[in-house]
Amino acid sequence: MSISIAIVEDEKNYNNALKKVINYQQDMKVIAQFFDGNDAMQNLPAISPDVVMMDIQLQDMLGIEIIEKLRKEMPNTQFIMCTSFDDDEKIFNSLKAGAMGYLVKGESMDKILSSIRDVYQGGAPMSFSIARKVLKHFERKLPEIKGFDELTEREKEILELLSEGLLYKEIADKKCISIDTVKKHVGNIYRKLHVNNKVEAINKFNNFKN
């Protein structure tokens, strides 16, 4: 059974080139081509292809808008952005809208074909430059996670009890330790999490849990 594909791309030469290469493959077939956003918006739901190759900057609207509006109507369709734009805002807006892949125009046809197969099988293909941007975005959050990982098991237990609203004396009684020991643990927690008070510590703890 071949992978059914729709192409939404207002550059006709590129649209037709994609169709020609895709249709040359034994395991996939282009079942629709769209050269503007409105046409795609109106007709994609009825066609419901396995994969949509979506340009971001169409002449009449953004491809991101199309995905946002059609995602719920087309739960079994996977969208791959194929565009010349690689700025952070468009990347993350595309992924938030529901795109499962993001390719920069200029990728080899082999990469595009393998990405179609990949997304069809549940993957999330991206150009290397895009993948690096996504990783850097998450790396900015790593220092906070690292601080939490530095806590000992006992410190994590005490932090959890603090988040439940227990007082130092109640924590001491529950863990069979002295209040001074509790205070020492709390001081270590503040230092490792880079916070100054209980509220900040609890907020960070809740963020880690979420």
From TrEMBL:
- Give all 4-aspartylphosphate modified positions: D55
- Name the coiled-coil region(s): none
- Native organism: Chryseobacterium sediminis
Domain HTH luxR-type: residue ranges: 144-209
Record's keyword terms, sorted? DNA-binding, Phosphoprotein
User: One Pfam family from the UniProt entry?
Assistant: GerE
Provide the leader sequence positions: none
One Gene Ontology term of the biological-process aspect is: phosphorelay signal transduction system
Source species, domain of life: Bacteria
Q: Which PANTHER family match?
A: TWO-COMPONENT RESPONSE REGULATOR (PTHR43214:SF43)
Domain named Response regulatory is located at 4-120
Sample GO molecular function, one term: DNA binding
Q: Does the record carry DNA-binding as a key word? A: yes
| Keyword Phosphoprotein part of the UniProt annotation | yes
Protein name (database record): DNA-binding NarL/FixJ family response regulator
